[in-house]
Design brief:
5 helices; elongated; alpha+beta; 6-stranded antiparallel sheet
């Protein structure tokens, strides 16, 4: 088998295989289907291409939303008193109007930002992933004085000590006559 160097090349070779080989060879599944219905099948069989051409029914294209719904995952959850629930370790906010009710959650596992919530007797709604910021932490920080750790310093005492040194430095300079007259010259 030749080495494939890109997705485009793989797709091109797949298309050639389908159109030149697979669609033109008799298919055992088609034979089994007709024989299970009591119909006779030619000895050479029926190819997928012949079966496709034989079927005169028009193609019916499904609405995209119907197809998308078919691939959603569904789980049951109880909505809490605040109108929230957890799914996959993530909190979602639905509605306080659904508090304490059982709901069916429909979601795409590849896009969990929003999910659909369905409760009996209520219109379906979209629940959004909750963003809990740092200021809304469930566990507040414990004050230093309550931890049993002995603080190395105190901001209050440090500030008072600084002020004390400044005040006493000014008083010492005011009472010292050693510098007196040096600033103004030696006219005394």
């Amino acid at each position: 088998m030749a080495h494939v160097h890109s997705v485009e090349e793989l797709n091109r070779r797949w298309k050639i295989f389908l159109e030149q080989e697979y669609q033109k060879e008799a298919h055992a599944g088609i034979r089994e289907y007709y024989e299970s219905r009591g119909a006779s099948v030619p000895s050479c069989g029926i190819t997928p291409e012949q079966e496709w051409m034989r079927d005169a029914r028009e193609l019916v294209f499904l609405d995209v939303s119907v197809v998308a719904e078919a691939f959603l995952h569904h789980e049951s959850r109880r909505i809490d008193e605040a109108g929230c629930f957890s799914l996959g370790g993530v909190r979602y906010e639905a509605s306080a109007a659904l508090a304490n009710l059982e709901a069916e959650i429909a979601y795409d596992p590849m896009d969990m930002e929003t999910v659909r919530v369905c409760c009996r007797g209520a219109a379906p709604l979209t629940a959004h992933r909750m963003e809990i910021g740092a200021s809304a932490s469930k566990v507040p920080a414990v004050p230093m004085g309550m931890t049993g750790n002995i603080p190395e310093t105190s901001r209050l005492l440090d500030a008072l000590e600084k002020k004390y040194k400044e005040d006493h430095g000014q008083m010492a300079r005011a009472l010292s006559f050693g510098e007196y007259g040096k600033e103004a010259g030696s006219h005394v």
